[in-house]
Specification:
11 helices, about 5% strand, alpha+beta, globular, single chain, 4-stranded mixed beta sheet
């Protein structure tokens, strides 16, 4: 299978996944959809040397209290209500999660498998297809951290995001699979930050925007 065929094949899994009767999605109001779109444009357009294929992206919000995030090729990103309302405390942390998944989508970092849907794709299968080994995961973290700093977000929150997963492995077990790996990820990412002596010189956004809090409240109010 060529890279293009693989990309098309995995991107098409979105249809089979959303056909799953157990999957409920949150239909975003226009203001919330526009906010996410502008946030991702800020990340993508500010790093065109990295995002050469995906010039735009789409976020699908799953109506589940289980915290999780994953992606598919062609800029398809999935976040859960539980992740957004319980763990994404500021705009920089939201940018961290989005950027991590956008890098995977751009670079096609998924297991090279042919998936034959039998009616629909279960959530557990897509999460499995999004799991990387420790070395691959760490490289994506490094790229994503570099990108969010270049985009003007606060890079300190990237480590906070990994620590949140490590401290709450019971909540994130469906996401991470192996709790020992997230512990190693946090440790190795800390070492990476310590060794990084030359950071991009940009002004970080220390405060989240009003649009971010409005977005969070709208998702929290969904039943």
């Amino acid at each position: 299978m060529s890279a293009k065929d693989f990309e098309d094949h995995y991107a098409d899994l979105k249809k089979s996944f959303l056909n799953n009767p157990e999957i409920k999605i949150i239909k975003l109001e226009l203001s919330a959809a526009n906010y996410l779109e502008s946030l991702m444009e800020e990340i993508l357009n500010g790093n065109e040397n990295i995002f050469k294929k995906n010039k735009s992206a789409k976020v699908t919000i799953l109506n589940t209290e289980t915290p999780l995030h994953f992606s598919l090729p062609k800029g398809e990103v999935f976040l859960s209500k539980g992740l957004i309302t319980k763990y994404l405390k500021n705009e920089s942390m939201l940018a961290c999660v989005l950027t991590f998944e956008l890098v995977k989508s751009e670079k096609l970092l998924y297991p090279k498998q042919t998936v034959i849907p039998t009616g629909y794709i279960p959530l557990e299968k897509l999460l499995f297809l999004n799991r990387l080994n420790l070395e691959e995961q760490l490289e994506v973290h490094k790229w994503a951290h570099h990108i969010i700093v270049r985009s003007g977000f606060d890079g300190e929150y990237y480590l906070s995001w990994l620590q949140a997963q490590n401290r709450n492995t019971a909540d994130f077990i469906l996401q991470v699979g192996d709790p020992n790996q997230i512990t190693r990820e946090e440790s190795l990412f800390k070492a990476f930050l310590i060794k990084t002596t030359q950071e991009d010189k940009v002004v970080s956004k220390k405060n989240s925007s009003k649009s971010f809090y409005s977005f969070i409240n709208r998702i929290r109010d969904v039943l």
